[in-house]
Specification:
This protein is of the alpha+beta class. Helices cover 31% and strands 33% of the residues. The strands form three sheets. Strands 8, 9, 10, 11, 12, 13 and 14 form a seven-stranded antiparallel beta sheet that branches. A five-stranded antiparallel beta sheet has the order 1-2-3-7-6. A two-stranded antiparallel ribbon has the order 4-5. β4 and β5 form a beta hairpin. The two termini are 32 Å apart. The model has no long low-confidence stretch (mean pLDDT 97). It binds cytidine-5'-monophosphate (C5P). The site of cytidine-5'-monophosphate (C5P) has 14 residues, from β9, α2, β12 and β14. The site of cytidine-5'-monophosphate has 14 residues, from β9, α2, β12 and β14. It is an enzyme of class 6 (ligase). Keywords: ATP-binding, Ligase, Nucleotide-binding, Purine biosynthesis. Pathway: Purine metabolism; IMP biosynthesis via de novo pathway; 5-amino-1-(5-phospho-D-ribosyl)imidazole-4-carboxamide from 5-amino-1-(5-phospho-D-ribosyl)imidazole-4-carboxylate: step 1/2. This is Phosphoribosylaminoimidazole-succinocarboxamide synthase.
Length: 235
């Protein structure tokens, strides 16, 4: 297969169809913009399965995604999109960079859900941006597209909060990415996994996400397997 692109967590390969590509989930783990890096055998397969399960559920909710189908343990056939270089972060509870930036206590429930945009740019360390910044950087074509990203972010959050709650998990925050398909439609792309979400056990408060790796708090594979097994129960 011809490799089109390799990122920190995924490889993208060409297919015979110009509008479709293969997305492979890698076993690599990175944090703090690649400063901390490691490998975890089997993580790619876990994240591939978790994303497939969630994207299929989101499609049923009317949220368009790039997923066509999962083709093996670590690979999905997906629609080819041009990724919009904006990370859409949705937060329900204070944690991570929000807690640090605003001096909030980790675990504090926010009075309402917030949506943030970050400019996807490794050289700049993915800075927090507002709508004006996105416009002057030409990250989208118009402000309506930014409203759509926010709207999809909230819809994904509304659905996922309930989805995870059913299996005893609290969705603290998450990051999603979008792309434009061949018709210019904005659709959900990339992944939704414990690498890109904060998930806490409802009863014990135990973290079941990448913070385990970021702060050496425990075993990633065990936690991600637990998330996948619980999500399989909802299906
Ligand atoms: O680090 P921060 O608190 O801003 O992260 C918010 C959420 O977005 C977390 O769930 C984190 O895992 C996710 N995120 C991500 N990729 C990034 C930045 C944040 O998946 N580059």
């Amino acid at each position: 297969m011809e490799l089109l692109y390799e990122g920190k967590a995924k490889r993208i390969y060409k297919t015979d169809n110009p509008n479709e590509v293969i997305c492979e989930f890698k076993d690599s783990l990175t944090a703090f913009n690649g400063e901390k890096a490691s490998q975890e055998a089997g993580k790619g397969a876990l994240n591939c399965a978790i994303t497939t399960l969630i994207f299929e559920a989101l499609e049923k909710e009317g949220i368009p995604t790039h997923l066509i189908k999962q083709i093996d343990e670590t690979k999905q056939l997906v629609k080819k999109v041009e990724i919009i270089p904006i990370e859409v972060v949705v937060r329900n509870i204070a944690a991570g960079s929000l807690a640090k930036r605003l001096g909030l206590k980790e675990g504090e429930k926010l009075p309402f859900t917030i949506v943030e945009f970050y400019y996807k740019n490794d050289d700049l360390n993915d800075p927090l941006i507002n709508d004006d910044h996105a416009m002057i950087l030409n990250l989208v074509d118009n402000r309506k597209e930014l409203d759509l990203l926010r709207d999809y972010g909230r819809k994904v959050n509304d659905f996922l909060t309930k989805f995870f709650d059913k299996v005893g998990l609290i969705l603290v925050d998450f990051k999603i990415e979008f792309g434009k398909d061949e018709n210019g439609n904005i659709i959900l792309a990339d992944e939704i996994t414990p690498d890109s979400c904060r998930l806490w056990d409802k009863k014990t408060g135990q973290k079941l996400d990448k913070d385990l790796f970021r702060f050496n708090l425990g075993d990633i594979k065990e936690a991600y397997t637990e998330v996948l097994n619980r999500l399989k129960e909802v299906k």
